[in-house]
Amino acid sequence: MIAMDILTDLFETLRLRSLLSFVANLRAEDAMAIPAETNVVRFHLVRRGGCTMEVPGLPEPM
């Protein structure tokens, strides 16, 4: 039996790649700026607590 990994096939077809840039432990008073890039989709995971994101061009923080 041949195992099929549909997600791997899909990612390879779409030429999607992943990269772990950093892991950060931030506190309430911390902030970070992430530069805009073309052809890049960024995902962030907040494991505990919450966060606010400010996006240029949007009137209110998210």
From TrEMBL:
The answer to keyword DNA-binding applying to this record is yes
Tell me any Pfam family this protein matches. Cupin_6
Which positions fall inside the AraC-type transcription regulator ligand-binding domain? 5-61
The entry lists its GO molecular-function terms as:
DNA binding
**Keywords for the protein's UniProt record, in alphabetical order:** DNA-binding
The protein here is known as Cupin
What is the species of this protein? Answer: Jannaschia donghaensis
At the highest ranks, the source species' classification is: Bacteria, Pseudomonadati, Pseudomonadota, Alphaproteobacteria, Rhodobacterales
